[in-house]
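[agent] plan:
  1. take the single chain provided in the ticket
  2. run structure prediction with default settings
  3. attach structure tokens to the ticket
  4. add a short note for the reviewer (M.T.)
[agent] executing step 1
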Amino acid sequence: MHDIKISVAMATYNGEKYIKEQIESILGQEILNQSMAVDEIIVVDDNSSDKTIEIIEKLNCSRIHIYKNEENLGYIKNFYKAISLTQGKYVFLADQDDIWEKEKVKLTFAELQ
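[agent] step 2 finished; step 3 output follows
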């Protein structure tokens, strides 16, 4: 069984404008963006009313796991839920509208080591 080393916890809410570019900036070697790939991206959607979930599903990536809240938890509780669902030894937090630099995972991981 593959051990998950690096997880990303992402809280989303009506993020259709930025979500595709943000996730693509995290996905890593699969799309030649990050110089070091993450093992999983846990997305917890806070009951969005836009196409956030649909856009993420279209990425069709086995490393992305989507959970949708039945009711709005708010930003802090939603992030807490996302973190609690990760399995990695190291957890990166990601806002739905941040674009990661190519070396972010590699450089941060190296500092943690």
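[agent] step 4 note for reviewer: The longest strand covers residues 6-12.
[agent] ticket updated
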